Amino acid sequence: MTVKTLYEKVWQSHVVKDYDDGTSLLYIDRHLVQEISSPQAFSGLTAQNRQLVRPAAHIAVADHAVPTRNRNMPLAEGLASRLVGRLIENCEQFGIDYISMTDDRHGIVHVIGPELGFTLPGATLVCGDSHTSTHGAFGTISFGIGASECECVFATQTLRQRKQKTMRVTLNGALQPGVSVKDIILALIARIGTNGGVGYAIEYTGPAMATLSMEARMTLCNMSIEAGSRVGMVAPDETTFAYLEGRPLSPEGEAWDAAVAHWRDLGSDPDAVFDAEVELDVSGLAPHVSWGTNPGETSPVSDRVPDPATETDSAKRAKIERSLAYMDLKPGMPLEDIAIDHVFIGSCTNGRLEDMRSAAEVIKGRRIAPTVTAIAVPGSAGVRLQAEAEGLDRVFTDAGFEWRGSGCSMCVAVNDDRLKPGERCASTSNRNFEGRQGQGGRTHLMSPAMAAAAAIAGHLIDVRKLGSSN
Amino acid sequence: MQKFTKITSVAAALREAHVDTDVIFPARFLLLLDKAGLGKHLFHERRQGPDGIKTDFVLNSPPFDKAEILVAGANFGSGSSREQAVWALTDFGIRCVIAPSFGEIFQSNCFKNGALPLVIQGETHERIMRAAEGGNPLTVDLEAQTVELPDGETIGFEIDPYRRHTLMLGLDEIGSILADDADDIATFEARHRSSQPWLFLDDGRLERLFADTRSS
């Protein structure tokens, strides 16, 4: 038998057939359905009079368009209400389980998939959302697809795909206090670029990876797409099994034992060859913040805003100039001098319990700067309830944060949580694209601890300088 | 799906790398339910200022407001999976984007909508960009796998044979899978269910989890 990588093992176990042209028909085990990418897929089925072949392979939830306030009120008449209403109708018509926004199981697709045990190692999982790479943290081949491909999964339970090349990212060393997995992934993207992973399925490994919790691994895999890679994976291990055991949709009893035995063999063979190798030593890593308009435009917080005049490549220089103009930043200014108006803690990248704890630890006993508006948006109702049981909601509200209901919120600004033109936000989300958090808004990406520190200081700051609040 | 064989058109030049899907189609318009008519929101923030007044963006002025080809910088369509970015392009009339590289999901979405994302790199890309800026028509011929520049130069390109095939025939991929592969899928599914039964949730797990909402 030939040696294989994790990706190749999971791929091979899902190939229905290989075609002559080098593409394969890949079986899709699981599909998370949300309101933005599904209406056109459902209407495609209806128009062609096609069946949805396997309802038990799908779970649906509205996460992008839902408000994070006044959740017990009916949605106000309008586009969002129409979109959520359409999802509910479609789920009823096609027999898919739908989770409403008042349900304790509600949340962002990429937060609730793992929470419910819907995400399992060795599976293929898709969703009409690019951050589906998140689920790769479990050793799942999971990737974002468009609405047409959602329709294909509804109708056939397969997708015709070409196998990706493989890239191994080895994380060496150990993180220092105050530095988190968000800083690792931002540093990696800054290094390989936002298209450095295009065409590859990334596997994360190494001593610094092995010690990461499941939640941290999800953050890592989540942002693989920001490096251009649709797929980011981690081999399942004891940490994975401990997280999954007892989840509502995890296998039980003998099935659990059989599944774990299967999952233990999924890791890349010792001699497996990857098409590309990247190594990153995280020991000296400082907290990172983005200064531009894509996640690769990121630097250690102690740095200065880059000067385009020092860039010799004309295309790169033009990009930096454009980014600084949009972000209204002056070349050479210290990043820590950048004052902010808003703080957003949440999203499928950093809206999990550990993220809330990490931010709460920084703000406990402090008040946010008077110039700042700050919201904490748990990624799911499950995260919210557990955080509330731990008293974290009070920590946030005592510090001057608003504590909200679950959803994508100001990561994508499809609901009413939006920046106004010119406003600047310290954000734990995944994209600092132009207008991403609202038309004309400016985003600086960072970890939850760094965003919390920015809320207190009123400007970007190395969280390690704040010291202990207690 | 609309077939793509050969188009001749002026090409709009967008000399900028990393144009992401939020720039192509801002997120707030994702609340719209239909594919039709999305072209008016294409590059919305680039095409009009905060005051609603048209900018000098390339697609705002003749002859490029009728361009069927867009020549862009590297990593075009990076970011989100929103197929609305492609629907907006095709609704506007753009059938082909030429760039050194693309966001993968955007690229895949193009092929589902009769649009050709053409990867051309280096000096060749620069020649096409300059030709586009010159304002004379180019021809993209998928059958011959060539781009013909106004000065008569012919540039060859590579493309995935399956994707070329589907575009040229305007193939309904779902229809093809259902017609040709249904038996293989059924056979695979039975085998898969027996080797990894925990991947199938119709064994009562889903029913138990949603007992409350199913009964209401």
TrEMBL record, chain A:
<dbReference type="InterPro" id="IPR036008">
    <property type="entry name" value="Aconitase_4Fe-4S_dom"/>
</dbReference>
<keyword id="KW-0432">Leucine biosynthesis</keyword>
<keyword id="KW-0479">Metal-binding</keyword>
<keyword id="KW-0411">Iron-sulfur</keyword>
<comment type="pathway">
    <text>Amino-acid biosynthesis; L-leucine biosynthesis; L-leucine from 3-methyl-2-oxobutanoate: step 2/4.</text>
</comment>
<protein>
    <recommendedName>
        <fullName>3-isopropylmalate dehydratase large subunit</fullName>
        <ecNumber>4.2.1.33</ecNumber>
    </recommendedName>
</protein>
<feature type="domain" description="Aconitase/3-isopropylmalate dehydratase large subunit alpha/beta/alpha">
    <location>
        <begin position="8"/>
        <end position="458"/>
    </location>
</feature>
<dbReference type="InterPro" id="IPR015931">
    <property type="entry name" value="Acnase/IPM_dHydase_lsu_aba_1/3"/>
</dbReference>
<keyword id="KW-0100">Branched-chain amino acid biosynthesis</keyword>
<dbReference type="InterPro" id="IPR033941">
    <property type="entry name" value="IPMI_cat"/>
</dbReference>
<dbReference type="InterPro" id="IPR001030">
    <property type="entry name" value="Acoase/IPM_deHydtase_lsu_aba"/>
</dbReference>
<feature type="binding site">
    <location>
        <position position="348"/>
    </location>
    <ligand>
        <name>[4Fe-4S] cluster</name>
    </ligand>
</feature>
<keyword id="KW-0408">Iron</keyword>
<keyword id="KW-0456">Lyase</keyword>
<comment type="subunit">
    <text>Heterodimer of LeuC and LeuD.</text>
</comment>
<keyword id="KW-0028">Amino-acid biosynthesis</keyword>
<dbReference type="GO" id="GO:0003861">
    <property type="term" value="F:3-isopropylmalate dehydratase activity"/>
</dbReference>
<dbReference type="Pfam" id="PF00330">
    <property type="entry name" value="Aconitase"/>
</dbReference>
<feature type="region of interest" description="Disordered">
    <location>
        <begin position="287"/>
        <end position="315"/>
    </location>
</feature>
<comment type="similarity">
    <text>Belongs to the aconitase/IPM isomerase family. LeuC type 1 subfamily.</text>
</comment>
<keyword id="KW-0004">4Fe-4S</keyword>
<feature type="binding site">
    <location>
        <position position="411"/>
    </location>
    <ligand>
        <name>[4Fe-4S] cluster</name>
    </ligand>
</feature>
TrEMBL record, chain B:
<keyword id="KW-0456">Lyase</keyword>
<comment type="function">
    <text>Catalyzes the isomerization between 2-isopropylmalate and 3-isopropylmalate, via the formation of 2-isopropylmaleate.</text>
</comment>
<protein>
    <recommendedName>
        <fullName>3-isopropylmalate dehydratase small subunit</fullName>
        <ecNumber>4.2.1.33</ecNumber>
    </recommendedName>
</protein>
<comment type="similarity">
    <text>Belongs to the LeuD family. LeuD type 1 subfamily.</text>
</comment>
<dbReference type="InterPro" id="IPR015928">
    <property type="entry name" value="Aconitase/3IPM_dehydase_swvl"/>
</dbReference>
<comment type="subunit">
    <text>Heterodimer of LeuC and LeuD.</text>
</comment>
<dbReference type="Pfam" id="PF00694">
    <property type="entry name" value="Aconitase_C"/>
</dbReference>
<keyword id="KW-0100">Branched-chain amino acid biosynthesis</keyword>
<keyword id="KW-0028">Amino-acid biosynthesis</keyword>
<dbReference type="GO" id="GO:0003861">
    <property type="term" value="F:3-isopropylmalate dehydratase activity"/>
</dbReference>
<dbReference type="InterPro" id="IPR033940">
    <property type="entry name" value="IPMI_Swivel"/>
</dbReference>
<feature type="domain" description="Aconitase A/isopropylmalate dehydratase small subunit swivel">
    <location>
        <begin position="1"/>
        <end position="121"/>
    </location>
</feature>
<comment type="pathway">
    <text>Amino-acid biosynthesis; L-leucine biosynthesis; L-leucine from 3-methyl-2-oxobutanoate: step 2/4.</text>
</comment>
<dbReference type="InterPro" id="IPR050075">
    <property type="entry name" value="LeuD"/>
</dbReference>
<dbReference type="InterPro" id="IPR000573">
    <property type="entry name" value="AconitaseA/IPMdHydase_ssu_swvl"/>
</dbReference>
<keyword id="KW-0432">Leucine biosynthesis</keyword>
<dbReference type="InterPro" id="IPR004431">
    <property type="entry name" value="3-IsopropMal_deHydase_ssu"/>
</dbReference>
